[in-house]
Write a structure and sequence with these properties.
Helices cover about 70% and strands about 0% of the residues. It is built from 4 helices and no strands.
Amino acid sequence: MVQSLVNAYSMENANLRQKHIFEQTLHALVRLAKSEQMMEIKANVRKLTGTVPVAKTRSAASKAGLAALAQMALPGLDEKMNAQGVAVRRRR
């Protein structure tokens, strides 16, 4: 679409520089319109869904429960890794 507009504009006496500036200006307008449309869509979604609650960090009890579940899934993994001299990385 942009190229056809540039071609229609260049029917007059336009040099290459003027064509290039016109083409880049049209591309910038398209990008601006897309970003404004996306901002409007996001604002409408926020209105419809309300605010999203912020996730709270896990408590020590929750972390201990996750560690227990991991141990049930892969029993003895910590001991095997420590015996081989591999540092066991904990997820935060």
